[in-house]
Amino acid sequence: MIKQLLIASGLALTAMSASAAGIEGLYNTGEGFAAGQVDTHYSFASISGTATGTDGYGVVTSGIGHPFPNWQANSEASSWLAPTANAGQSYDGVSNGVYKWTLTFDLTGFDTESAFFSGKWWADDTGYIQLNGVTISSGAGYRSATSFAASAGFVAGINTLDFYVTNLARSTGNPTGIRVEFGESFAEELIVEQPPVIPTPSVPVPEPETYAMLLAGLAVMGAIARRRIG
User: Fold this and answer.
1) 12-59 pLDDT, tens digit each
2) CA distances for 158 relative to 31, 67, 206, 218, 229, angstroms
3) What is the three-class DSSP state of 216?
4) Is the backbone peptide bond immediately before 55 cis, with ω within 30 degrees of 0?
5) Contact yes or no for 91/176 (Cβ under 8 A)
6) Exposed, middle or buried by CB within 10 Å (0-12, 13-18, 19+), for 192?
7) Of 4.10.320, 3.40.50, 2.60.120, 2.40.50, which CATH number belongs to 13-192?
């Protein structure tokens, strides 16, 4: 009975528990990179437009020269990304360009129902954000920040944040770029508590004196049996 209770208690401890943690992988644009370097956290793709990116990514801007000060200034927390090292390069002179900047993060081992993040972003000229294909923010500009947040729509495993930027057609002086800065984020980390190890009862090994007594008893029983037969 006691052993059954111990096993039941151990199974109960196997249930999932959780602890709060920030979401890893939510990088600000330019975070960890110097001006002029390729930011490999954010991939770049041209949906329709003349900008092609730099090896599939964007480049961290220095914050000096065109398109600054039209673009809101970089900060210690985040920097603008442009398709190439020349942040002031002009694109989309005839028709609008549409570009996708993508950031992924992993929620494996986290409770997706508890996940949350917030932040702000800028885009030249405008745009919207999708989390796993669902729009969570729209209407960004380049002179002031637009807020965004998500508390639903997360999936276990890899999550995808797509920042779609539309660069309105203009014959000259028409750069494009993006800047993202996260605020709060958290998710409950799932922890599997293993059941305690229940020791297996050991079978006692008879002492030598016990063996001697057993043999003596068998000898006496054998002698009695022989006398009865004789």
Assistant:
1) 333 334 445 689 999 999 999 999 999 999 999 999 999 999 999 999
2) 20, 34, 60, 73, 85
3) helix
4) no
5) yes
6) exposed
7) 2.60.120
